[in-house]
Every structure is written in C-alpha cells, then in structure tokens.
Design goal:
By secondary structure, the protein is α+β, with helices and mostly antiparallel strands. It folds into two domains: 165 residues, 3-Layer(aba) Sandwich (Aminopeptidase), CATH 3.40.630; 133 residues, 3-Layer(aba) Sandwich (Aminopeptidase). The protein has twelve helices and 13 strands. Strands 1, 2, 3, 4, 5, 6, 7, 8, 9, 10, 11, 12 and 13 form a 13-stranded mixed beta sheet that branches. The relative contact order is 0.15.
C-alpha cells in the first residue's frame, strides 16, 4: 500500500511509529516553508510490518505537471522495520506508480546522514550524490574523549570564556525577539537569502511540537549581562542540531559561540541523543566555518542529495537550450535561471 498524506493528524500518527526521525520531517516544520502555491505531502508506504515515509513539498510547474522538493534541512526517507537486507523492489515500483499518477516529473531531496538506511531504501531509484560533509559530536562517546578532541585554541578560549561569561536560556517572548534581531543582523552581514530570515512564527512552531524540543541559548557577559552570542538547540528522538547560531560583532575576537557549542554538547548528551550536528560550511574542510566546527570534533558525515527523474521525456521537453548546455549539477535543470 502506498498513499499520500497531507493532513497533520495522519502525518503525526505516521511519524510516531518511525524508528528514526528528525525535526525536519514534521508536518509543522514543512508548513513553515510552503508558499501558498505549494503543498506539504508525506508519501506513506506500507508492506507487512515495514513502513517508509517520504516528506516532500509539491510544486506546480504550470503545465499540468508537478515536481517534489525537500524543505531546508536534512530530510530524506524515514522508516520502521527496515534493515540492510531490505529488497526495495516493491517500494520502488509503488513509488514510481504513485508519482506518475500524480504527474510528478522530478523529485529532489537533501538526505539526512544521521538516519541509517536512507541510501539502501533509495537504491536504484534515481541517484544519490555527495555534495559535502557535516561535522558532528558522537554523543555516545564519554565527556573526556569528546573534550580531548577540542583543539588547543578552543580549549584556551573556553577557559577564558568560563571566567568572564555564562550561558543564559531564553524563555520569554522578549528573549525570542532579541534573538531574532541579533540573528537578522548576522544575516545582513552575510548578505543571506531572504529564506533564512526566520521570524517569531518559526520559534512558536518549534516550541509547540510534540516531536522535538527547542531551546534558545545565549552567551552573556557575566558582569553586564550583555548578549555576546546565541544559538538554537533542537533535539528530536536521537538527533540534535545547533541552528541559527550568531555572534555579536562587538565580541567577535572573544569567540563567545564556542561556549554555546560546548553547552549544547552537554545539554543534548543529558537528553540521550546519539548525535549532535554542527553542520557544514562553504569551502569544505578548508573553509573558515568548517575549521571552526572541526576545532570541536573531527567526526565527519557525508552529506548527500537524492535526484530522481520520474518522467524523462517530459523533463527533456521542459529544458531550454541554455539549460541543456549549462555545465552544472543543479537539479532539476528546468528550474535553472539562465542569462
């Protein structure tokens, strides 16, 4: 059996049975990223005691066809009772049938490296492609081993920060507003895309979820209580993430964000998570952001994406000559903006 779920009640019921899930897979999180012309859907497959779910965003192509994409984050399939011996032939057949019925031309999803079996589930269904790496804390390791992986510079900075600053939990509306204001200033400096300018509704949605917890954390000056840095810690069943991190420009040199990374490691460890994702960065291991993150941990996870052309003939017919000639991995190519 395979079907499409588009309502919160059924979506939540399906998620509650999964062996693994992340906050990116939830119905409420998907609603944050859907425009009025888009629809969040969960493709739900069941065969015996095996269940597979594919959360996606359905977009209208304006020609009687649609495509599917993933929300911002690390998504991909979730499941119950799937192991490395799974034969995905029936799933592949059922998935293609329902996609063709729904007139889906292509499917694109960022995958979640902390959820095992995703590549096995998608084997021979389109293709998966490695696009980078993410740094993470192995939360099953003991504190001593984790801290010994901190490089010398990080250990020295943390020692200084613990003498002059402290961690504060933001639990009021005023705290959220302050966090948003500082985070937006950080985005302004980076000239970030408008997509990432999350507002109060984003935090409200996260706070109300039954599938994960979220905490706004600040590094503040011990004497003045002035905010030096901030980060959002989000924890689901087994996976935690540090999101929306920023440092106040005045305190760049003291690197106050390091105190929050260390705090998030300790907090998520107490909650029993197995992984704390620190994320990636432009330029890979040689980029400044990845170097900062790897000063805490040298655990790297491969970040993959999934690309599936369901209707090859329709796909080809939608490409302009400029798009055909473009030397790029952008997918789907018919959405590539050309000069």
């Amino acid at each position: 059996m395979i079907k499409i779920i588009s309502n919160k009640v059924e979506w939540d019921e399906w998620l509650s049975q999964m062996d693994y899930l992340d906050f990116y897979h939830t119905y409420d999180y998907h609603q944050l990223f859907c425009t009025p012309s888009e629809m969040a859907i969960l493709i739900a497959y069941e065969n015996g005691n095996t269940r597979i779910g594919l959360p996606m965003v359905k977009r209208n192509l304006g020609n009687g066809y649609y495509d599917l994409t993933s929300v911002h984050g690390y998504v991909g399939p979730i499941y119950k009772n799937v192991d490395c011996d799974i034969d995905n032939t029936n799933f592949s057949k059922k998935l293609k049938n329902i996609l063709q019925k729904e007139k889906i031309v292509t499917v694109f999803s960022k995958l979640n490296p902390y959820i095992p079996m995703q590549n096995t589930i998608l084997e021979n269904i389109g293709q998966t492609e490695n696009v980078g790496e993410l740094v993470y804390f192995d939360q099953t390791a003991n504190d001593e081993d984790q801290c010994s992986a901190y490089n010398r510079n990080t250990r020295q900075i943390l020692k200084k920060l613990k003498k002059t600053s402290k961690v504060k939990v933001g639990n009021t509306e005023s705290d959220i507003e302050t966090f948003i204001a500082h985070y937006h200033k950080s985005l302004d400096r980076l000239k970030a895309k408008q997509l990432f300018y999350f507002g109060a509704q984003y935090f409200k949605t996260l706070a109300e979820s039954d599938f994960f917890s979220s905490e706004v954390l600040f590094t503040v000056d011990s004497e003045t209580d002035e905010i030096m840095a901030g980060a959002l810690l989000i924890q689901s069943k087994k996976i935690a993430h540090i999101e929306l991190a920023f440092s106040v420009e005045k305190y760049f040199k003291s690197s106050p964000l390091r105190l929050l990374f260390d705090e998030c490691r300790q907090r998520s460890k107490k909650e029993g998570t197995t992984v704390l994702n620190l994320g990636g960065g432009i330029g890979g291991r040689e980029g400044s952001l990845m170097k900062f993150k790897s000063s805490f941990s040298q655990n790297y996870a491969k970040f993959n994406v999934w690309k599936y052309i369901v209707e090859p003939d329709v796909y080809k017919s939608m490409l302009t000559q400029e798009q055909k000639d473009a030397d790029t991995n952008f997918f789907p190519k018919y959405r590539l903006e050309t000069a």
